[in-house]
Amino acid sequence: MTYKVGRCLLRELLWNKDMTQQELAEKMSITAQQINKYVLNDRKMSLQVAKNVATVLNCQIDDLYEWIEVGNNE
Question: Which residues pair with 3 in a beta bridge?
Answer without folding.
Answer: 69
